C-alpha cells in the first residue's frame, strides 16, 4: 500500500509568482485535502476534493485553487504569492465520507522571498 | 467557531513515566477527536481517536480520555519512550459538509532517556 507523496519537498519563490504543488493520494483513497501549516501553528484547512469536485473550503482567498484528477492525485495552485504564504503545505488523503483517518504526506516547504 | 486549543507548547518527561497531553474545545458538536504525532520533516501520523459516544479509548500505550462536561480531552502515554519525542496535535473532525480537521497549535513532547 503506497502512502501519500508530495512534490517538491522544498521550494523557494519570489513574491508575486505562482506555484503549483502536487500530491499523489494513497491507493484506494478518493478524497484529498490540503492544509497550510505556518511556523508554530497547527495545520489549517485550505480545501478538499472528492471525486474531482471541490467539497469544502477554508478561510483562504481565491488565489488558492486546486484540482483533483481521475486517478485522485491533486494539485494546489497559489497565484500572486505573498510573504505570508511561506509555510508547510500538507496533503492528506482519506477514503471518502465517514472515514475519519487521514493519511498525510510529508509536505512541501514553500518559502516566499 | 470550532476552536481546538492546546495551551501548553511543550512537555518534558523522563523515560518510563507518564506523559499527559491536554486539549480543550469550545463547541459541543463533533464526531471525533483525533491525535496526530509529527516528527520533523514528516507529515502528521494518526495516533488514536475518540468518538462523541465514548469517554475513553485505549490503544497499547496510548489512551485518550474525553470529559464532555469540561470540554476537555487528554492523551496519556504510558510508559513514555524516547521515540515518542515529537509534536502532538489534537484535532477535531467537523460535522456536516466536507469532513475537515481543525487542529490545535500542537505540543512538543520530549522524553528524556
Walk me through the structure.
The complex is a heterodimer of chains A (113) and B (113). By secondary structure, chain A is mainly beta. Chain A has no helices and eleven strands. Chain B has no helices and eleven strands. In chain B, strands 2, 4, 5, 9, 10 and 11 form a six-stranded mixed sheet that branches. Chain B has a five-stranded antiparallel sheet with strand order 1-3-8-7-6, with no helix packed on it. In chain B, 32% of the residues are buried. At the A-B interface, β4, β5, β6, β9 and β10 of A face β4, β5, β9 and β10 of B.
Secondary structure layout plus pairing:
The complex is a heterodimer of chains A (about 110) and B (about 110).
Chain A: E1 5-7, E2 10-13, E3 19-24, E4 31-37, E5 44-50, E6 53-57, E7 64-68, E8 74-78, E9 87-94, E10 103-104, E11 108-112
Parallel strand pairs in A: 2-11
Antiparallel strand pairs in A: 1-3, 3-8, 4-5, 4-9, 5-6, 7-8, 9-10, 9-11
Chain B: E1 4-5, E2 10-14, E3 19-25, E4 32-38, E5 45-51, E6 56-59, E7 62-67, E8 72-77, E9 86-93, E10 101-103, E11 107-112
Parallel strand pairs in B: 2-11
Antiparallel strand pairs in B: 1-3, 3-8, 4-5, 4-9, 6-7, 7-8, 9-10, 9-11
Amino acid at each position: 500500500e503506497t502512502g501519500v507523496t508530495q512534490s517538491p519537498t522544498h521550494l523557494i519563490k519570489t513574491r508575486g509568482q505562482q506555484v503549483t504543488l502536487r500530491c499523489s493520494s494513497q491507493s484506494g483513497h478518493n478524497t484529498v485535502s490540503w492544509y497550510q501549516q505556518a511556523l508554530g501553528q497547527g495545520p489549517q484547512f485550505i480545501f478538499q476534493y472528492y471525486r474531482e469536485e471541490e467539497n469544502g473550503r477554508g478561510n483562504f482567498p481565491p488565489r488558492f485553487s486546486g484540482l483533483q484528477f481521475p486517478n485522485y492525485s491533486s494539485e494546489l495552485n497559489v497565484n500572486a504569492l505573498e510573504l505570508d504564504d511561506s509555510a508547510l503545505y500538507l496533503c492528506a488523503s482519506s477514503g471518502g465520507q465517514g472515514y475519519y483517518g487521514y493519511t498525510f504526506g510529508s509536505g512541501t516547504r514553500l518559502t516566499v522571498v | 467557531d470550532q476552536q481546538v486549543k492546546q495551551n501548553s507548547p511543550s512537555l518534558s518527561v523522563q523515560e518510563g513515566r507518564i506523559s499527559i497531553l491536554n486539549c480543550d474545545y469550545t463547541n459541543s458538536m463533533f464526531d471525533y477527536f483525533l491525535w496526530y504525532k509529527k516528527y520533523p520533516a514528516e507529515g502528521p501520523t494518526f495516533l488514536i481517536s475518540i468518538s462523541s459516544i465514548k469517554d475513553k479509548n485505549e490503544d497499547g500505550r496510548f489512551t485518550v480520555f474525553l470529559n464532555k462536561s469540561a470540554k476537555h480531552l487528554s492523551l496519556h502515554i504510558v510508559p513514555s519512550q524516547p521515540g515518542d519525542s515529537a509534536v502532538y496535535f489534537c484535532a477535531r473532525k467537523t460535522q456536516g459538509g466536507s469532513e475537515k480537521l481543525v487542529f490545535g497549535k500542537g505540543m512538543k513532547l520530549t522524553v528524556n532517556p
